[in-house]
Description:
9% of the residues lie in helices and 34% in strands. A four-stranded antiparallel sheet has the order 4-3-2-8, with no helix packed on it. It has a three-stranded antiparallel sheet with strand order 1-9-7, with no helix packed on it. By secondary structure, it is mostly beta strands. Strand 10 (108-109) and strand 11 form a beta hairpin. It has one domain (9-113): CATH 2.40.50.100.
Amino acid sequence: ASMQRQAVPLMQPEAPFVGTGMEYVSGKDSGAAVICKHPGIVERVEAKNVWVRRYEEVDGQKVKGNLDKYSLLKFVRSNQGTCYNQRPIVSVGDEVVKGEILADGPSMELGELALGRNVMVGFMPWNGYMVKA
């Protein structure tokens, strides 16, 4: 836990191939993601803003309601001296529900916690020794 606090977030992180199943929950609960407050349809997406048209139930039918604006932080300095950046992960026309992630925060990819990158590693014997020798 101490090492994760000292890590610098990557500009293009990757979610792990093998995970615990809690990466989505951790990313959502981190407070770094932008979460939809009301169900609706995405009307406009920009680098700094996401607009969602609310759905309202009238006589059992969905009717267009108010337009919600979600502001994103772009390349802002954090208290730790790192770069804080949020990226939209929804597209125009997407139907969103309450609690869905609209934008990733730092150390996130598609709503999942992503603290690093997936790299390919090869182990080879050297002079008769193995990995743990």
